[in-house]
Task: structure prediction
Amino acid sequence: MVIAEVQRLVKKYPSFELKDVSFCLESGRITGFIGRNGAGKTTTIKSMLGMVHPDGGTVQYFGKPFIGNEAEIKKRIGYSTGTVSWYPRKKIRDIVSIVKGFYDTWDDAAYRRYLDMFSIDEGKTPLELSEGMKVKANLALALSHAAEVLILDEPTSGLDPFSRNELLKLFQTLRRDGVTVFFSTHIISDIEKCADDIVYISKGQIAAAMPREDFIVKHSQSGESLEDTMLRMEGGAMHA
Result:
């Protein structure tokens, strides 16, 4: 079942343009959104969440347009960037006491579980956290209100290999629970480890959007790893 649909998204900047970006997210699947830095991943995600206003196109969740249903839809979505940037001098526990008031589905038991899993010290402020711990703190918030869809912008950024692997395993657990996970990354091994589907963006345009197995059949040459394939495709895009 399609749980989110992006259609012909356009966003124009002086030096960059998002061009007719279209793809779907299927319920209970992990979709890796891959592309080099500057390809348009963050602009797409922010457009999907109303954080920037696209110049064209539509976004739907649960069969409803995002515009006009934003408050209702956002209660069913978990979102996380790579870092915690708000309230940098407030303690994590104080930030949580503010955030939880926005969600009638907030689950304190789940939040405590993620605090323990990620070894987060609630007495610290974001300024006192390492980049990896900021990612984990933001994820703990995103995961603690029974979100049906997780939209994560570079969630493995700044994590050490062990923590990154731990997070990818968490995605697989969430998938078993029926949660849809959409995460951007430029780390191809993240895609190889857990993604069911691939959305590949290059220079502001979707170059491929399909199940990972279909992507490999269609685009990989004999003996290539997924990383080899992506690098070859990106090289072709750069010289097109």
Q: What stands out?
A: The domain at 2-76+148-239 is CATH 3.40.50.300 (Rossmann fold).
